[in-house]
Amino acid sequence: MDYFQKLTKQVATFLGITQFVATALAIAGVLIAAYVYSLPLYIVALIGLAISSAVAYLSGRLASTYVTEPVLFLWKAILHVSPSSHGASAPDLDKSRVGKELVTSLALQVYQLASSETPTPQSARHTAAAEHNRTDAIMQNFPLPVFVMDKKQNIVYANTAALHYIDQPKQDVINHNMYSVLDLSFPSDHTFDAWLTDSRDNKATASESWERVRLMLGDQKTKKQFDMAAYYNKDNPENAETIITFFDKTVRYNKDDDAVSFIALAVHELRTPLTVLRGYIEVFEEELEGKLDPELEGFMHKMQSSAQQLTAFVSNILNVARVEENQLFLQLHEENWEKILRSILNDMALRAQVHDKTIEFSIQPDLPTVALDRVSIYEVVGNLIDNAIKYSDKSSQIIVKSYLRDDGMVETTVQDFGIGVPSSIIGNLFEKFYRNHRSRAQVGGTGLGLYLSKAIVNAHGGQIWVQSKEGEGSTFGFTLAPYAQLADELKTTDNKDIRRTAHGWIKNHSFYQR
Ligand code: ADP
């Protein structure tokens, strides 16, 4: 403040002196004109006016230069530190005449402010760029593959681990659509794409993870398997709508697949002796009917039921191996569903009886004929009834119903009143190897029955579903298409039946043309 008062004083003195000089010069001019040259009064007045105008103009110019000098010095100091002025030289503060102390002090403060990190737009941009570089360096060295997609699902970023993982050069990945770069398949229809569509419709941000995702590399031979996590951000300003990362489990999941293949190979060898055993059990049963006491008859039934269970297990394993290889071929024929279902339930009745369960069956009369592959549908119903028996605890009632739905599909449900499934895991039941850990210890199984059933039902063009409440029981249901609905398909071929392949992997985006 002292410096400021000093400046005010200096300016006041300067203005005072210039005013005094101007007035003195005007008076001197008037006196000289009047007394030395004895000019008439009006000439004297004109001379006085001219002198005072000239002096006022000169003193004004002088005063403005003088008074604005501190501003000039400060302006130069600011320009000197401003990044946009590209190296303007610093003012020589020693040459400052007006308010030197104030100017020096203010200029120093300007330099100080500039050297600390003041976020001018330019420096903010520099900071953002530095931040971006740092993030990029971290992401590039991040050991997991990371892909970032924009709203059109074009890949806008892929780190080094990602490019390495999919074995593709950067130019074939960046700015390419993710569906053309990442050939992903999922073990259920809860695919990345399904999740993204749902997130776009309902959420601002969302995250999700998947297990056992498959990626086929460009050579169409190498298969990677991993767990995957994704993050969605609706209006991300960086154009990063979705981020995905992979947790490679190729070795582990391949081992599981190999185990299935190996078991399938071993199990295949069980088929012949098993058929022989079942044949003889049937012969015994026929020959000894009515001749055995009830206890021995009970044993006979248990033998028969176990042989049946073993047969179902063998074909489940073999079929899962086929599904994995896309080698499970189905032939759909026109069938009377009531007849087929009754015959399957008839076969299962003994098994239910051995476990003290009763199957109640009701079917809507006059159902349309359906298109099905007998052997594989047998397996689906067998798996559902088998589960109802296994997981129904002490309750003995199993209800099977079949009816026509409003949409024209034939639906069949298997209901039990057993242990049920907690809602948190209900979505996983149809996944390969999935078993509820709570029932795992008490009840034997492979976690393949529902997975296989789903693949088979889907290959028939139907859907499989479950409704369950823990402690109260479960209802599993599946639909089959009426034959008439699929018959159009036949017209386009010369075949008498409809051929389908059951596969367990759902493509991420089946509509995208690669
Ligand atoms: P598995 O029965 O051989 O374990 P599944 O694929 O048939 O394999 O079934 C997967 C899991 O689903 C089972 O382990 C069990 O936890 C659960 N589950 C299936 N059916 C039922 C049911 N009716 N009631 C309760 N839980 C069931």
Description of the structure:
It is built from 15 helices and 15 strands. With 514 residues, the chain is α+β, with helices and mostly antiparallel strands. It has three domains: 3-116, no CATH class; 142-248, PAS domain (Beta-Lactamase); 257-501, Heat Shock Protein 90 (2-Layer Sandwich). The strands form three sheets. A seven-stranded antiparallel beta sheet has the order 2-1-6-5-4-3-15. Strands 8-10-11-13-12 form a five-stranded mixed beta sheet. Strands 9-7-14 form a three-stranded antiparallel beta sheet. Strand 1 (146-149) and strand 2 form a beta hairpin. Helix 1 runs antiparallel to helix 2, helix 2 runs parallel beside helix 3 (100-115) and helix 9 packs antiparallel against helix 10 (294-324). The longest helix has 41 residues, at 41-81. The site of adenosine-5'-diphosphate has 22 residues, from helix 12 and helix 14. Adenosine-5'-diphosphate binds at residues 383, 387-388, 391, 416, 418-421, 429, 434-436, 439, 445-451, 474.
Structure summarized in a few sentences:
This protein is an alpha+beta fold. It contains 15 helices and 15 strands.
What's the helix and strand layout?
Elements: H1 2-36, H2 41-81, H3 100-115, H4 121-141, E1 146-149, E2 155-158, H5 160-166, H6 178-181, E3 183-186, H7 192-202, E4 205-216, E5 223-233, E6 242-248, H8 250-268, H9 271-288, H10 294-324, E7 328-335, H11 337-354, E8 358-363, E9 370-372, H12 374-390, E10 397-404, E11 410-416, H13 437-440, H14 449-459, E12 464-469, E13 473-480, H15 483-491, E14 498-502, E15 506-507
Parallel strand pairs: 8-10
Antiparallel strand pairs: 1-2, 1-6, 3-4, 3-15, 4-5, 5-6, 7-9, 7-14, 10-11, 11-13, 12-13
Helix pairs in contact: 1-2, 2-3, 8-10, 9-10, 10-11, 10-12, 10-14, 11-12, 12-14
Bound molecules: adenosine-5'-diphosphate (ADP).
Adenosine-5'-diphosphate is lined by residues 383, 387-388, 391, 416, 418-421, 429, 434-436, 439, 445-451, 474.
